[in-house]
Structures are given as structure tokens and as C-alpha cells.
Amino acid sequence: MGNLQQAKELLHTMTRAEKAQLLQWVASELSDIFPGIEKTPGVCGGAARVSGTRIPVWSLVQAREMGYSEERLLYEYPTIRASDLQNVWDYYEAHLEEINDQIQENENA
Description:
Layout: H1 3-11, H2 16-29, E1 37-38, E2 49-50, H3 57-65, H4 70-76, H5 82-94, H6 96-108
Antiparallel strand pairs: 1-2
């Protein structure tokens, strides 16, 4: 029997609390996977950016820290959606040092 089949059978025997804990573990294992965020060498200096755009994560985070609301960001960047912003915030939370370093580099430039 394969791992997935075993997991499926075990799932049926678990309490809601156990399933919630399992879900947290799985999410933690996949924490480096961020839909809607990509890095491409040679595009935006290889910085994390909103997929299909040239909008770096650090620039949106910096704008939010300067007081821009999500509504204003969506107005200023009409090619992105609210779900893109959520992906950006999630990425930032998981990669604080990386993004803060990029913000600092930009401010020093």
C-alpha cells in the first residue's frame, strides 16, 4: 500500500484536532512554495516578484510600510489583484530578512 493510501486511511481515524495539527505540519513543509510569486534570474535583479509582472515583493511591502492601503496599491498597480497582494504578504512573512534587506538596498541606492 502506498503512502498516500495509508494517509487517507489514517485520516479517517483522526480527530478534528489531529487533522488540524496535520494540516499545520503539511503547510509548514510547503512554506517555501508561494503561488503567484516567482524569482527569475535577470528579471528585477532576481528578486521575488508578482508572477507575470516586474513588480518586486519588496516594493509593495515598502509601499505598505509607507502607509499605502491595499486599495491604493491595487489602483497604482492595475495589473495585480487582491490575491496577488495576499501572496506578497504571505511571502514577506516567511522571508522577512530577504525582503527587508532588499528594501534597505533600495533605500541606500
